[in-house]
Amino acid sequence: MADVVWTPQPGSQSLFLSCPHFECLYEGTRGPGKTDALIMDFAQHVGLGFGLSWRGILFRETYKQLSDVVVKTKKWFRRIFPGARFNESDMGWRWPGGEELLLRYMNRPDDYWNYHGHEYPWIGWEELTNWAGPDCYDAMKACCRSSDPRVPRKYRATCNPFGKGHNWVKHRFIDPAPPGVPIRDGNGRIRVRLHGSIRENRILLAADPDYLKSLEADTNVNRRRAWLYGDWDIVAGGAVDDVWDRESHVLRPFEIPHSWRIDRSFDWGSSRPFSVGWWAESDGTEVRMADGRMRCLPRGTLVRVAEWYGWNGQPNEGCRMLAVEIAEGIRRREAEHPALKGRRVLPGPADASIFDAENGVCIADDMGKRGVRWERADKRPGSRRNGLEKVRKLLKAGLERPMEHPGLFVFDTCTHFIRTVPVLPRSERDPDDVETEAEDHIYDETRYRATARVTTTTSQELGL
Prior knowledge:
The protein is an alpha/beta fold and 464 residues long. It folds into two domains: 12-229, P-loop containing nucleotide triphosphate hydrolases (Rossmann fold, 3-Layer(aba) Sandwich), CATH 3.40.50.300; 246-450, 2-Layer Sandwich (Nucleotidyltransferase, domain 5), CATH 3.30.420. The chain has 14 helices and 20 strands. The chain has helices at residues 12-17, 34-43, 66-80, 135-139, 166-174, 202-207, 211-216, 221-229, 246-249, 323-336, 363-368, 383-397, 415-420, 441-450; strands at residues 23-28, 55-60, 85-87, 92-94, 100-105, 122-125, 154-159, 183-184, 190-196, 250-251, 261-267, 274-281, 287-288, 294-295, 302-310, 349-350, 357-358, 361-362, 375-376, 408-411. The strands form five sheets. Strands 3-4-5-2-6-7-1-9-8 form a nine-stranded mixed β-sheet. Strands 10-20-15-12-11 form a five-stranded mixed β-sheet. Strands 13-14 form a two-stranded antiparallel ribbon. Strand 8 and strand 9 form a beta hairpin. Helix 2 (34-43) crosses helix 3 (66-80) and helix 12 packs across helix 14 (441-450). The longest helix is centred in the first third of the chain and has 15 residues, at 66-80.
């Protein structure tokens, strides 16, 4: 009897390799053996007679990140398939029967065109939360096909919570259904997610009994919750996670004093979402909170009382509304929203690009004709870094008890702010800025407002 080189451990590994659905995400803690299961999901179909028809491609976000995958494939494939050969220059495995597995990186959506028209009945994604958005992942689905009807089609991915893609992966796979419960998309295809725990991996825990202790010792609370427990209900991003606390910053709506200034901020988008935020700025007047308590928010404190997020229901995808339609929608919301109706809403900062004229058309002018005016947001060199620092400063002040400095708060009705801003990652290129490929549109209009120079309102500004 031949020695068994590798076999899936009972639990999530076995479920992943036997999953019958087209699209499957293997998520969870660190250490259940997700990478091994991913490469073995391809390998289990080698030698079954598919030959040249069985082709696969496994992606990481960068070339450097592929090194761990290469090491693992060499560890197992050379023992299981003595006839298989790895081409170092081409980064691919080939078997005597014609089967092929390519190891590639995909950093941006345009990289898809390197594979357009190819057939890969098996496509794998290692650490899916490393991709800031779903564009690369979604584009390659067009290549998950085969002209051989015998061959299975499998779209597979692994990840932990945490990382710059935490938000879209959670929206796509985690929020709709519990682990193991199929989710049917609009095209009738089924996707499912399976949850793995390090406590299933008896081989690892026996070989390295201190591994759990190293995860428990992580001083980053959110990362520890993600990697040790596979907890998706965390603030996992890096830009503001250390100064954000939902219990402190999210407020139930209360009546805004008439002496407080109300204005709005705006980040333009068409193929990407646009974002409108309405802000009440405290003048130090004491307010009655929703629970009946009186509270004094320091002068200059910003409260996000309403928002309008122009998306199509998918993270980081816009709804392509015209500027005039957005302006009309703003006017309608200001006439109907409980926190805004009957109040004078002043022009606030907007993305400076709306003031640029193209072919004689200016977005700001089009919106102005519908009664919605804006001020230019500060987009001078260094403004992005200054904006992040100011937003962090305001959020941190909101944690003070008692508060001595202006802070930033959000009504619990502003669900998209709560969904996107706390999980924004820092940029790998510039740690003093957020990752611009992430879903940063609400954050952008928030920093416009946070850095705006607001002067005392005069009767002329009010149109009186």
